[in-house]
Amino acid sequence: MNILMIGLGSIGQRHLRNLKLIEPNTNFFAIRKKQTVPLLNNFNRVLKGNIKKKYLLTYFKSLSEIYRKKIKIDCAFVCTPSSMHTSQVKELLKYKIPCFVEKPLGSSLKGLSDLEKIVKKKNINTMMGYQFRFNPMIKYLERVLKQKSPIGKLMSAHIHHGENIEDFHSYEDYRISYAANKKLGGGVILSQIHELDYFLYLFSDYKIKFSSFISSKVSDLDLDVEDIFVSNFLLKKRENKILCSIFLNFFERPKKRKILLIGKDGTLEACLNSQKIYIYKKDKKIIKRFKFKRNDIFVKEVKFFISKIKSKQKISNDLNLSNGIRTLRFALKLKKKFIN
Predict the structure, then answer these.
(1) Into how many domains does the chain fold?
(2) Which CB contacts under 8 angstroms, 24+ apart, belong to 164-171?
């Protein structure tokens, strides 16, 4: 296979490492304009060495240069700052190259409608990098919500993700990261869009009947984007109603990532960082433990994507760019209510 990497920051290098394990005989090409991120390991620690030599990469300046050299690219991974994604994906689809796109699909509505038309018109496999879809804990919660619930009829849900942006990448000053900069597509809503994606996924059987939301910058962090987001959604499925809240922030320590479900017969608390789910009933407490390495879910999603490229099987709309467009539009709507 010939695989093209566009962007080799922390997530680009993670995908590259995993691809090397999955497809060791692959030829890797890269379009890399800025070479500021050093060679990293799975824990984002800096290693001695050179990315190009380590992975035997062939560098190019543009996609048109690759095309002129008549190199057939089997698929591409888009891992650049969010603000660049939409235009880069449009160019890849122009050359009929299947692509895996890191979240989110963009940072504005600009070019999104055009991209949507291209996606619908061209029969090219695409996939969004929402790796939580491959997390066994999210899979378990999907069964709880859509099949059999151990806590009875669901009445309330709360999604919480708080993590200090200064702890994201030890190798770089957070102030230059994409997450901290508006022009690069930063802000807590787009950076932590995984929570919005699995919210839409887990509650896909429900309709949003009412919503209220607000974002702002409340910390002393050196950012020009929102660092806190709070929302409430009233969801309805036939006669059943749920009130769901989502809380995101860029300043919390220690980091916390939890999903709380409150039902008629008990409460379920999923602690995504500790990989434990607690089920509380009147006189009973059940602990479900999930044992997997963080990188495992990244490997799963990449394996899935490569298998579809090789078999030429269509990736479903709930995982491809159609979902990326839907989730981005939802997130951008939530970003509108920013109060300084």
Answers:
(1) 2
(2) 164/250, 164/251, 164/252, 164/253, 164/255, 165/221, 165/223, 165/227, 165/250, 165/251, 166/221, 167/253, 167/255, 169/10, 169/44, 170/44, 170/45, 171/37, 171/38, 171/40, 171/44, 171/45, 171/46
Has residue 334 been placed in a domain?
no
CATH number of residue 200's parent domain: 3.30.360.10
Query: Are 6 and 72 part of one and the same domain?
Result: yes
Amino acid (one-letter) located at 277? I
Please answer whether residues 161 and 248 qualify as being in contact, where contact means their C-beta atoms are separated by less than 8 angstroms. Answer: yes
Sequence-distant (≥ 6) Cβ neighbours of residue 96 within 8 angstroms: 122, 124
Identify the CATH number of the domain in which residue 9 sits: 3.40.50.720
What is the H or E stretch that residue 215 is in? strand 207-216
Task: Report the 10 Å Cβ neighbour count for 132.
Answer: 18
What is residue 36's predicted lDDT score, i.e. its pLDDT? 76
Domain annotation covers residue 268: yes
Q: Are strands 27-31 and 2-6 parallel, antiparallel or unpaired?
A: parallel
User: Would residue 84 count as lying in a domain?
Assistant: yes
256 with 162: CB under 8 angstroms? yes
Query: Can you tell me the distance from the alpha carbon of 269 to that of 260, in angstroms, rounded to the nearest whole number?
Result: 5
Whether the pTM exceeds 0.90: the reply is yes
Mean pLDDT of 301-310: 98
Q: How far apart are CA 59 and CA 339, in angstroms?
A: 43
Sheet holding 126-129, edge to edge: 58-60, 27-31, 2-6, 75-78, 99-102, 126-129
Range of the domain at 306: 2-130+296-320
Strand residue runs (E) in 7-138: 27-31, 58-60, 75-78, 99-102, 126-129
pLDDT, tens digit, for every residue of 7-39?
Answer: 999 999 999 999 999 999 999 999 987 777 899
Do 16 and 76 have their domain in common? Answer: yes
Backbone angles phi, psi at 25, to 5 degrees: -95, 15
pLDDT at site 33: 76
Question: What radius of gyration do the chain's Cα atoms show?
Answer: 20
Secondary structure class of 206 (helix, strand, coil): coil
